[in-house]
Amino acid sequence: MNDLYSRIVSQRGSLERLGARLPGFGGYMDMSARRQADRIIREQVAAELTQQINRLPAIEKQLLDAGGLQHMSETRSAKIKMQTFIDRVATAAPGYSGFYDAIKVTAEDLAVVYAFDEALLRYGDAFQEKLDALGQAASSGEGIKEAIAELDRVTIEANDAFSLREKTLSGLE
Questions:
Q1: Measured between alpha carbons, how far is 46 from 27 in angstroms, rounded to an integer?
Q2: Residue 167: half-sphere exposure toward Cβ, Cα within 13 Å
Q3: Fewer CB within 10 A of the terminal residue: the chain, N end or C end?
Q4: In this structure, are residues 172 and 16 in contact, taking their beta carbons and an 8 Å threshold?
Q5: 151 in Cβ contact with 134 (< 8 Å)
Q6: What is the mean pLDDT of the chain?
Q7: 42 Cβ partners below 8 Å, 6+ apart?
Q8: Which sign does the torsion angle of CA 94, 97, 100, 103 carry?
Q9: Whole-angstrom Cα distance, residue 60 to residue 89?
Q10: Cβ neighbours around 9 below 10 Å, total
Q11: Alpha-carbon distances, residue 24 vs 33, 36, 108 (angstroms)
Q12: H helices present in 54-140, as ranges
């Protein structure tokens, strides 16, 4: 397994902690509830990420007002990757439908799925943190390139993590 997989699985918490962040989440224990639980998680993550990406135009305007036209290409690139992640999370097929139903899911498999779902929520927190840093950099005029690079790094990692989640759910990883 790769480093990202190992990090996500090693940072897993409890089902209670996952449920505490997701109103209406009942867990995956009931086979018939898995599809619903997967949808609830992805909708919550997509909503949180959408709130974060909606902050970026104001930060870009702040950069432009300070003469930061040279940063627009990098912020646009990060925004596209962030939007791609949001779209992937929001529109992915339920993890337990179709041919997934034929896959026997063990308690260990569920623990790994919880770890990936927690990771999706942590990426929302990471986007917030990186956008806060970019906003502060835009205000001060210092560290802008570094803040954009960090935001870009998180967007790439989030997309990689989601790809890994999909591969794990399908049994390919």
A1: 18
A2: 12
A3: N
A4: no
A5: yes
A6: 82
A7: 89, 90, 92, 120
A8: positive
A9: 25
A10: 16
A11: 12, 10, 23
A12: 56-65, 72-91, 107-140
